[in-house]
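re the bet — no i am not wrong, look at it urself. input seq straight from the record:
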Amino acid sequence: VPANAEIVLEGYVDLNEFRTEGPFGDHTGFYSLEGEYPVFHVTCITHRRDPIYLTTIVGPPPQEDFFMGHAIERIFLPVMKMQYPEIVDIAMPAEGIFHNLMIVAIRKSYPGQARKIMNAIWSLGQAMFTKVLVVVDHDVNVKSFREVVWKALCAIDPERDVQMMLGPVDTLDHAARIQDFGSKMGIDATRKWASEGFTRPWPDEIVMDRTTKAKIDALWGSLGLGR
């Protein structure tokens, strides 16, 4: 038994034995559906003196697992950037249960690159379970849900920019047509280029003049409008 272990469970799993498990309160914020799962037979329990049982409380987001999800996001970003250097940043909002929504900012250099990134991410291990992928330009702050929604909804033509595909989905996805198999959606919310068939001019964003902004900032406190 490892000296630094809190609690050790010893036993065996019969690969041919299954029992009904559930419903179980999960990190999706819903009770997972009943299912048949392998049985672990415990033959011995060993623990240190005054052991600490480590666990997290899950439920409607955000819960304790929010910090685990955010840590995973930061840990895997450098790995993803090594393989796909056009990736600038990613975000997996807690409201999307992490694996249901990923926002990806890329530095676009050729037509169709957003779709390439969608398909690439869907090929990366656990990332294949991402239900909705939103790809935005490098100058969009993926941590600002407000900015992402604004920029994405102003940049997409749904018929042109939404991609659907069938494949493996998370086993906890109760909306899937059958367990473990369903559809995923990719949204190309990048600015469209002429080489992508977009021939209209793309408008500039409204930016307040710095001089005017400085004057208003100086007057703001005297206007009685609060912070």
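see?? The chain has five helices and nine strands. told u. also The first helix runs from residue 65 to 83. so pay up
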